[in-house]
């Protein structure tokens, strides 16, 4: 697969070398974007020989995919942490509280990682083709779906996963499309209205377990 490191580093020194290469790649993407990304410049910034770079990453695409995979792992960690915070709450959160605890940190992550946004735009479909990255993306959605149980406990699982996918996509797209604060605020308002509607609709649905009363 294109996203895989050619040689999986086992020694600490090799792992540090891979980290240095990925850090240099991330810095370069932030400065020049995907189109201006060059392996020779990554090697120069990392203080590595070309042969050392290609020893770990077979191609430019492999390095970019590995960088994106690392970012998705960081994103997953942020999602898990937020989900754990929601699980500690004594009462079900309001839609606004849900966004404060869960999606605001997610938006902060996306806003801080400009290279993540550039990779999503500059490599459309490429990161999705890598199975490990697709699995990471799916785990982020699953974690968000679990967190939605605290907000809408009566929502059936299939709809919860669908809602989680939509929330993640809207948050991601808002960051990618526009960075202006006023647009970000409107994006949050759209998400809050969607969650309010979701809670309201589920609350109005008749119980699946209860019978009718005469």
Automatic annotation (TrEMBL):
Residues 15-75 form the HTH tetR-type domain. Pfam families: TetR_C_15, TetR_N. InterPro entries: Homeodomain-like_sf (IPR009057), HTH-type_TetR-like_transc_reg (IPR050109), HTH_TetR (IPR001647), TetR_C_15 (IPR041669). Signal peptide: none annotated. Keywords: DNA-binding. The keyword Coiled coil does not apply. It comes from the Bacteria. This is TetR/AcrR family transcriptional regulator. It comes from Erythrobacter aureus.
């Amino acid at each position: 697969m294109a996203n895989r490191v050619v040689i999986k580093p086992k020694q600490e020194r090799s792992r540090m070398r891979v980290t240095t290469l990925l850090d240099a790649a991330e810095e370069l993407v932030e400065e020049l974007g995907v189109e201006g990304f060059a392996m020779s410049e990554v090697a120069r910034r990392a203080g590595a020989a070309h042969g050392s770079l290609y020893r770990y990453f077979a191609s430019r695409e492999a390095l970019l995919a590995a960088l994106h995979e690392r970012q998705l792992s960081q994103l997953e960690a942020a999602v898990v942490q937020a989900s754990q915070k929601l699980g500690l709450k004594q009462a079900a959160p309001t839609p606004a509280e849900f966004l404060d605890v869960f999606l605001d940190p997610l938006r902060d992550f996306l806003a801080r990682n400009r290279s993540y946004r550039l990779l999503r735009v500059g490599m459309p479909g490429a990161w999705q083709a890598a199975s490990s990255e697709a699995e990471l993306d799916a785990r982020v959605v699953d974690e968000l779906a679990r967190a939605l149980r605290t907000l809408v406990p009566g929502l059936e699982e299939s709809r919860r996963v669908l809602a989680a996918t939509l929330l993640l996509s809207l948050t991601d797209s808002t960051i990618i499309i526009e960075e202006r604060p006023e647009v970000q605020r409107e994006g949050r308002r759209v998400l809050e209205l969607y969650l309010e509607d979701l809670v309201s609709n589920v609350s109005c649905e008749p119980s699946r377990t209860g019978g009718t009363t005469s």
